[in-house]
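Re: the 301-residue chain
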Amino acid sequence: MHKDGYLLHKYQPDRAIGSTWHPLVHNNLSELAIQEDETAIIIIMLGEYYDYIKDTEFAESLYTTLIQPAADFMAKFIDEETNLPHASYDLWEEKFLTTAYTTATVIGALRRASTFAEVCGDPDDAMRWAIAADSIAASLPLLYDPDKQSYRKGLLVQPEGDLEFDNVIDASSMYGMLMFANVPLHNPELENTVKAVEKLLINNSIGGVVRYEADNYMKIAEDAQPNPWFVCTLWLAQYYVQINDIDRARSLLNWSISHSLSSGILSEQVHPQSGYAIGVAPLVWSHAELINTILDINGTN
């Protein structure tokens, strides 16, 4: 962990910044080469572990070295113009902006950190981080596009203070708000976003959910549809489990299994016409979301 409380995109063995494709300058301003969601998700993951194991001693051992510096960083890494997290690189490792997904993870991480502060006997930190999370959550309407009726991919504060919106429909925006910001299931903004994400389902015999509108990464041809991703398909399945639509969840789970390689390996994405593997194979992320979805479905029985 950097002394300022964030995790870099890449590290050298001596903890110096590693080789990264994230630029250190944006709009002629020096910026951190980080994906803030990578810092936030570690705190969220630790919270998941604590809920399951209740290992207070382990949590206490990480409080001053991991939880506290990470939460302090996230609580301060805020744009005054929006009261949202300052821009960093998105989870797809492509764009520099304040994304709905990263914002959701920061809210979730600060709330987790607040809970850890209570466990570790630090009520001042607990209150400060809870207030920071609530303050960010109060600004979520800025990340909702009333025209598309969906949470947008994100926004970027311009040097003069204006806001530049990225209104692309992105599956991660839906998933972040659902899983990390704890937006209620029947919140109209979330329900509308799910409807928008459902339109990202490939509308042919292949099926599967693409990452976002007009995704060009590893496209087979300029005029082809974007490639569906296992991760995004399974995210939508996990939403269906939460609203108790188990049949639709199983359908997407079965789609994912049916498009695995003969060895059982899942790739990153699949060909939008043949359904064959494209990208990294195996991708641990794909397998993790498959397991998450199976556990979610089994938990309803």
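The chain has a mean pLDDT of 95.
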